[in-house]
Fold this sequence. Notes:
Order of helices and strands: HHHH
Number of strands: 0
Low-confidence stretches: 82-87
Strand content: under 5%
Number of helices: 4
Largest sheet: none
Shape: elongated
Amino acid sequence: xxxxxxxxxxxxxxxxxxxxxxxxxxxxxxxxxxxxxxxxxxxxxxxxxxxxxxxxxxxxxxxxxxxxxxxxxxxxxxxxxxxxxxx
Length: 87
């Protein structure tokens, strides 16, 4: 993890890393205790853990946008080689 990022940016990148590292088959029993056997296998075949939420409170919209671009979670279309969401 890059230590020069703001606290919010560091938490945002940690959340992105958390989502990318999860194994749905291992995570589902933690989220749905008691689910096992055929039901668990059916969910694992059709579901995949792909997102999470994180609340951040920047001072204004410009600070939010700049922070997201600096953290490289969102690309800025105005910069060469950028555009759209990263992932």
